[in-house]
Amino acid sequence: MKHQFKDGTLYFYFYGELDNLTVCNLKQICIDLIDQYQPKTVKLDFEEVSFVDSTGIGFVLARYKQLQKYHGELIICNLSKVNHRIFAMSGIFQLMKEERNGVKL
Amino acid sequence: MKHQFKDGTLYFYFYGELDNLTVCNLKQICIDLIDQYQPKTVKLDFEEVSFVDSTGIGFVLARYKQLQKYHGELIICNLSKVNHRIFAMSGIFQLMKEERNGVKL
Amino acid sequence: MNKMTLECLAHLENEAFIRTSAIAFLMPLNLSMEDCMEIKTMLAEAVVNAMIHGYEGNHEGIVRVHVSYDENQIEIIVADEGCGIDDISQAMQPLFTSKQHLERSGMGMTIMQTFADDFHITSEKGKGTVVTLRKRIQHECVSE
Amino acid sequence: MNKMTLECLAHLENEAFIRTSAIAFLMPLNLSMEDCMEIKTMLAEAVVNAMIHGYEGNHEGIVRVHVSYDENQIEIIVADEGCGIDDISQAMQPLFTSKQHLERSGMGMTIMQTFADDFHITSEKGKGTVVTLRKRIQHECVSE
Ligand SMILES: Nc1ncnc2c1ncn2[C@@H]1O[C@H](COP(=O)(O)OP(=O)(O)O)[C@@H](O)[C@H]1O
Ligand SMILES: Nc1ncnc2c1ncn2[C@@H]1O[C@H](COP(=O)(O)OP(=O)(O)O)[C@@H](O)[C@H]1O
């Protein structure tokens, strides 16, 4: 995972297999970075993610809730078709926006 | 596997995992090509072989014996270090020559 | 027809191993990328559930995975001898989770149900849980 | 410490699956390429022997592979319930094979013995064969 803070937006770039163990290992780092920057917007980029499961959904929902404290917005970026399908099952897109290549969907 | 017949030499180029199942699938093709060309020399190229086990040794020994019928010579080419080590255990290099990039070892 | 059984400790790091193994076992079927992804995801859900719900993170627990196929379908069974499920119909509800504090989404059951052609689960309190997933094999008309 | 057991039919196509699975299971150890190759090769030898000698090509036979590790060593056990070995010391000889017609080299046992730090085999005629392979884990001095 990489991250970048720019113009009030905190970007997280995930890659590879975002499975349970990987999420467990990344979680605290993300929590701490969000608390540190208290950003207006957080963008989670899944472009390079080859695998995600319901643990990933739980992680995204939890970050959404965390951001509510600062009235921040969470945006999910560059989901592949199959990853989109998994996220969509949870109704998550009722709560947050999706972007592809910087363009709102 | 690819093969080529040129100037009396029959070349076989193997690639990937040369495991038991793969050897079983290739064996008859090799036998038939040798019987067809009855070449002076057969060169078996292992450059692209990422895995070989004792089945591969058995295959090479059997082709050596097949070639004896035509007084042909068998040469093993471009073995990786680990593949060389496996072949060497059998004493196979007492029977046949080894080449790397066309140069006899 | 082919079958295998795999048993391992309930270490979370074994989850990726189980996914990789199952896909390696199914290799001869030449599945589509999409089928592979769906199978990996279903397995991840069932195996993670066995580890974190069934055994509640206790690494001593044994997760058993059975994979078999014939020309028509793939069957995957994931079993644990963990705590079992009290109320299966509640567990099946989208977004229901008993482990909110672990940031679970409650979507595992829904994903398995969506991706499997046939899904069922049996569970006994204190005895464990068995999840059975079946997937029909699409026979493509290969023009070779 | 971690362990797994894998059981599958004696289909030759399952040999690659077993190799892939074992390596996936050992992933957390970050083995060197060389150790991986040696483990794959030993497994290939033991599993192919179980399939073509133990079960003599009968696909109904079950091959059982047990892999475990702790901080010091990896243990691999390959077991079949096939025909067993008459004369183990003869079987161990380099270039001895009972299946010359299948173009076997008779080098399987020698390769296992060379690559394992500890190798032993027990067999009972008509009951089956168990091969145990151990490999010490090289702890490299990582300077991080
Ligand atoms: N193998 C299991 N053993 C015990 N309880 C389970 C098991 N699998 C699922 N459950 C129960 O069902 C609930 C819903 O499961 P699921 O839909 O996968 O969501 P999540 O894993 O995100 O909680 C879990 O929170 C848990 O209470
Ligand atoms: N699992 C087994 N069951 C029965 N016989 C076996 C088994 N493994 C090895 N053998 C016997 O030992 C001999 C030597 O084995 P090996 O050195 O691996 O050579 P190869 O497999 O090329 O014959 C075999 O030819 C066979 O007779």
TrEMBL record, chains A, B:
CDD domains associated with the record: STAS_anti-anti-sigma_factors
Gene3D superfamilies: STAS domain (3.30.750.24)
Listed PROSITE patterns: STAS (PS50801)
Record-level Gene Ontology MF annotations: anti-sigma factor antagonist activity
InterPro entries, A to Z: Anti-sigma_ant, STAS_dom, STAS_dom_sf
Superkingdom field: Bacteria
Pfam families, per the entry: STAS (PF01740)
Record domain STAS: where: 1-105
Family: Belongs to the anti-sigma-factor antagonist family.
Protein name as annotated: Anti-sigma factor antagonist
Source species taxonomy: Bacteria, Bacillati, Bacillota, Erysipelotrichia, Erysipelotrichales
TrEMBL record, chains C, D:
GO BP, one annotated term: negative regulation of sporulation resulting in formation of a cellular spore
Keyword Magnesium: no
Sequence intervals crossing the membrane: none
Gene3D superfamilies listed in its UniProt record: Histidine kinase-like ATPase, C-terminal domain (3.30.565.10)
Domain Histidine kinase/HSP90-like ATPase, residue spans: 34-139
Keyword set, alphabetical order: ATP-binding, Kinase, Nucleotide-binding, Serine/threonine-protein kinase, Sporulation, Transferase
Gene Ontology MF term list: ATP binding; protein serine/threonine kinase activity; sigma factor antagonist activity
InterPro entries found in the cross-reference section: Anti-sigma-factor_SerPK, Anti-sigma_F, HATPase_C_sf, HATPase_dom
Any Pfam family hit: HATPase_c_2
NCBIfam families: spIIAB
PANTHER family xref list: ANTI-SIGMA-F FACTOR RSBW, ANTI-SIGMA-F FACTOR RSBW-RELATED
Protein name per UniProt: Stage II sporulation protein AB (Anti-sigma F factor)
